[in-house]
Amino acid sequence: MKLNRLPVAHAVAAAMTLLLLVHAAVADKYTEAFSKVPWQEFPGGRFKASTNATLSASTIAGALFQLKPGGLRELHWHDVAEWAVVIDGACMGTATDESKLHPSDTWNFTAGDLWYFPANVPHSIVGLGPSGCTYITGYNAPDFNELTSFSASSWLATVPLATLAQALGISTAAAQRILDGNAGGKPSFIPQGSLRQMLAQAPSLPVQFPKLIHRYPLLQNTHEVVNADGSYVNMADVTRFPVATDMSGAIVRIAPGGMRQLHWHLNFDEWQFVINGTLEVGVFTEPGQSAGGVLQPGDLGFAPRGSGHYLRNIGQQMAHVVLIFNAGLFTNVDVGNFLGTVPPAYVAASLNISDAAAREIDYSLGGFAPAQLPPSQ
Predict the structure, then answer these.
(1) Which of 40, 219, 232 is nearest to 113 (CA)?
(2) Could you tell me the fold of the domain covering 221-369?
(3) How many CA atoms, within 13 angstroms, populate the side-chain half-sphere of residue 269?
């Protein structure tokens, strides 16, 4: 009897297609082509957001903002913490605390500077000249979108006329103008203001750092890990940025061919935004299974706490990545620490290799593994 190969071929093809679809679905949980997400335009700038609706495994939400000079991320607050880093340009941020001794902070931010606003601390950001500001934000809640923030415009538009006039100490005619200008309670979000007037009326900038200031100049750090190839982790956690008790972050630079070492975090998740470069990513999701993909500039990745993961630069230039964590104190376990703290015999038995092979492993590779040289001919 001759075997009918056509149905078998169709079955194999269908199975392979299903396998690819499942792999893609798993990868999509941990990566997002954020660079392809369209911008939402406003008079003073534009923005786009990522939540667990599009990066489904993530416990951290994020957003990318571009403000024009005088573009204002309006006076607002939200019930989640916000950690942000300026990617390009300059902006001025103001946060208002409940403390009577230090009621507000106003600072200028440039590329590499961070801010952190605890939950429900009101704040605003304005783009400065000559080109405005680009910044990336992270939030310690997976489904948060900045469009749902509480704001001055959306709140005051809901207050009865007489109540609003009484609260602000103004006439009902003046209160009516506020209501008319914000009819429907839709937030202004990023209105366009007069930068000249804003700067003329801005509070004086501090001349020294208060103990719990909301700004941190990340680029002034001494890098925790610097490899001979130029790779580094530039970290800011609560030990350096005391106000950031619930979130931390870093800018990572990875040399061509190099990789952020296989590692995991004990108590927090990692949210990744690629500034530039092309990176291979992998996330160990369950025994025998990893999700992987390639991230381009503007794309996102995510690794849950306890999941082994890595970033490998497969491009030809230095790659820079923003990492945001939903905990104030940074810790991690690198594969070299994991394997190198036990006798080689343990490693040999665990990996089903010889004791000699276990001794060949370089357990000294810490935060980064350098590019491998091609085998000699």
Answers:
(1) 219
(2) Jelly Rolls (2.60.120)
(3) 18
